[in-house]
Design goal:
- By secondary structure, this protein is α/β, with parallel strands linked by helices.
- It has 13 helices and six strands.
- Helix 12 links the parallel strand 2 and strand 3.
- The chain is globular, with a radius of gyration of 21 Å.
- The chain starts with a helix and ends in a 10-residue tail after the last strand.
- The model has no long low-confidence stretch (mean pLDDT 90).
Length: 316
C-alpha cells in the first residue's frame, strides 16, 4: 500500500526504494514485475520497464493489462513489430479490446502504414468513442495523409473538440492582473510535454531568451515526466515552472486560473503527451496554439493559431 501511495503521488524513487528494501509483492508473481515496470515507465526508463513487463507477461500471458503496458513500451522504444505482435495477442484474447486497436494503430503509424493506422483508430473509436488519446492520435495521423482534405480533417477535429468541451466546466471570469493595472507585464502560460530535447524545446529557447521581461512574464506548465539538459537551459527564462504530469485536467485548469494567466499557449496540438483537453476549461481569457502543431485543434476554445505562410499556405 505504501508503494502504491508513493507512486500515485509521483514519488517514484521513494516507491522504488520501498520495493527494494522489502518487496511489496512476492517477486515470483506477475503483479510484482508489473508494478515495478510501471515505476520504471513513470521515470521513462524504458529498457528496464520493457524487461519487467516481459517477465510479467511470461508469468501471466493472458493478462491484457500486462500486455497493454508491454505494447505501450514497445511502441515507445520503436520496437514496432514486437508491439504489433503484442497487440494482436491482446485482440486474440479480447477481439473488442478498444485500447488494443488503438495500440495497433499506433504501431502501424510508426511503420508508415497510415491506411492501417486510420483503420484501427476508427475501430478503436467505434468501440470506445470517449478515448480522447486515441482520437488525438487519429487526428495526428490524418495530417500525414495527402488525400484527406482539410475540410474532412476539420470535421474530425471538431468532433474531438465537442467531446472535450462536453466534459469541461469552462471559466467565464478570470483573475488576470492586466485588467487591474495595464502597466504590469502580460502573464503568458506555456503548456507542453516537449520542454526538453525536442524540436519544440529547441525552437522555443530561441524565442523566450529574447523576450522583454518588463512586458511578458513566462510561466511553464510542463507535462514532461523527465527533464534533461535542454530543460535546464529553458528554465531560467520562465518566472515560474510547474510540473503538471500528475494533475488532472480540472486540477490543472484550476491552477492556471489561480495563477492569473492572461494568455495560455498550447505547444503540442494533438502530438505527444498533449494536454489539449485542458483548454476546453478556458482557464485563461485568451488561448493560443503555436509551434508544435499546425493543423486545427478542433477546439472552439482556442482563439488563435500562430503560423507563417511557410508552415501554413495562405490558401489553407
Amino acid at each position: 500500500d505504501l508503494c502504491v501511495a508513493l507512486a500515485q503521488s509521483g514519488r517514484f524513487d521513494e516507491a522504488q526504494s520501498t520495493m527494494d528494501e522489502g518487496p511489496a509483492f512476492d517477486e515470483s508473481t506477475a503483479t510484482y514485475h508489473f508494478f515495478k515496470g510501471n515505476l520504471f515507465h513513470a521515470k521513462e526508463q524504458l529498457t528496464e520497464a520493457n524487461a519487467c513487463f516481459e517477465r510479467a507477461a511470461e508469468l501471466s500471458p493472458n493478462d491484457t493489462a500486462v500486455l497493454w503496458n508491454l505494447c505501450t513500451v514497445q511502441n515507445q522504444r520503436r520496437n514496432v513489430f514486437a508491439a504489433i505482435a503484442t497487440a494482436q495477442r491482446m485482440l486474440q484474447l479480447e477481439p473488442n479490446h478498444a485500447p488494443a486497436h488503438a495500440l495497433l494503430a499506433l504501431s502501424h503509424q510508426w511503420t508508415g502504414r497510415y491506411d492501417l493506422s486510420i483503420e484501427y483508430y476508427r475501430r478503436a473509436l467505434e468501440l470506445d468513442p470517449n478515448d480522447l488519446n486515441a482520437h488525438r492520435n487519429y487526428l495526428f495521423t490524418l495530417t500525414y495523409v495527402p488525400d484527406f482534405s482539410p475540410k474532412e480533417y476539420l470535421r474530425e477535429a471538431r468532433c474531438f473538440g465537442a467531446k472535450v468541451s462536453a466534459r469541461a466546466k469552462p471559466y467565464t471570469s478570470w483573475l488576470t492582473s492586466v485588467r487591474e493595472c495595464s502597466s504590469l507585464p502580460l502573464r503568458v502560460g506555456f503548456v507542453s510535454a516537449d520542454l526538453n530535447f525536442h524540436p519544440v524545446g529547441l525552437f522555443l529557447l530561441n524565442v523566450v531568451s529574447v523576450l522583454d521581461t518588463s512586458k511578458i512574464t513566462c510561466v511553464a506548465y510542463s507535462n514532461c515526466a523527465v527533464d534533461d539538459a535542454y530543460t535546464d537551459a529553458l528554465r531560467p527564462y520562465f518566472a515560474e515552472w510547474n510540473s503538471v504530469t500528475m494533475l488532472s485536467d480540472s486540477a490543472l485548469a484550476e491552477k492556471i486560473h489561480c495563477d492569473r494567466i492572461d494568455i495560455l499557449v498550447d505547444l503540442s496540438g494533438h502530438s505527444g503527451q498533449s494536454r489539449m483537453s485542458v483548454f476546453a476549461w478556458r482557464a485563461a481569457p485568451v488561448q493560443v496554439s503555436w509551434l508544435g502543431y499546425w493543423a486545427s485543434t478542433g477546439l472552439e476554445e482556442i482563439d488563435y493559431i500562430i503560423v507563417d505562410n511557410i508552415s501554413v499556405p495562405a490558401e489553407e
